Amino acid sequence: MHRFWRDSMLNGLAARAAARRRGLPGSERLFVIGLLADIGHLVMYQTVPELAATARESAERDGKALDVSEREVVGCDFSEIGAALADLWQLPPSFAGAIGTQLCPRLGGEYGNEAALLSLARCVVEAERRNQSSADAAASLEADIWPLLELEPEQLADIREEAELHLAAYVNLFFSSAH
User: Fold this and answer.
1) How far apart (Å, rounded) are the C-alpha atoms in residues 133 and 113?
2) Which end of the chain is less congested by CB atoms within 10 angstroms, N or C?
3) How far is it, in rounded angstroms, from Cα 25 to Cα 10?
């Protein structure tokens, strides 16, 4: 559980850093959306843990994206569950719109920019988890995301650095009673 929330915090921090880099107002809103972007995985592991584990194992074994495996095994992916929860919780429509299309931001319509920021943030989390360079991480993002982001691939390193710089403080804040 600690790893889930740590990654979620990094995701939120990266989304906020990218929003700031673009000069967007409401970067704290992007932090919250980023923090909740992966909540669908938490729900899967709490409600259908065997299916979620099977999907993860299948993705790793077959070398396919986890969301593809989730749709095959569970019938939906984490982003769909997260968007449904955001709607259920009556969060602003931008939350559900961005969370639900983070895997394919060009389908996000009016929330495409926020979805692209979540996609970039997810890239930062994955790069940190895999100990991957920022340049390699930027290259792994689909080319059609960069125009939505209105950022250059070279900026990912600064976004990642800012997010990782703040991560320890946030982890200490959220988990101080666990130490």
Assistant:
1) 24
2) C
3) 20
One-character DSSP codes across 30-61: HHHHHHHTTHHHHHHHHH-HHHHHHHHHHHHH
Is it the case that residue 127 has pLDDT exceeding 80?
yes
CA distances from 179 to 19, 32, 166, 168, 175 (A): 32, 24, 19, 13, 7
Q: Please write the tens of the pLDDT for every residue from 1-15.
A: 788 989 999 999 999
Over residues 148-164, mean pLDDT: 94
Report whether pLDDT(178) > 70. no
Round to whole Å and give the CA distance between 15 and 89: 21
**Residue 147 C-alpha from the chain's centroid:** 19
